[in-house]
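For anyone still unconvinced, we reproduce a single protein record, the chain in one-letter code, the fold tokenised, and leave readers to judge:
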Amino acid sequence: MSALGLFNYWAVIVLMMVGFYTLIARGNLIKKLIGLNIFQTSVIMMYVSFGKIRGGTAPILPEGAEHVEGAVEGAGGAVEAIVYSNPIPHVLMLTAIVVGVATLALGLALVVRIKEEYGTIEEDEIRDGAL
């Protein structure tokens, strides 16, 4: 495969590194949460890419068709091969989106409490103020 054919994987790697760098290199707690959110988004994109099959459809049998081991028997007894996409990665990523939103909400609530307590959201100033 050409490098252009793997565009989605390159996008995942770039987003993952941008999110990880932001998480580690920034001292502002809001920027750290944004980096964490970018990282989570890249992981979701990766799993959705794994679950997609070119030419695949949703695993739902057409109305009036009988399932015959990897094929569908249609009208007139004709057997057609159907390629299905695996729905499990997509379902798991819906759960991951909910967990990501909850994590972000909890993180923002903690940042608000830290701002009220220390008067800043900069990691270095909080560390110096706590000593």
About this structure: Strands lie at 66-68, 71-73, 79-81. Helices lie at 7-25, 29-51, 88-118, 123-130. The chain has a mean pLDDT of 84.
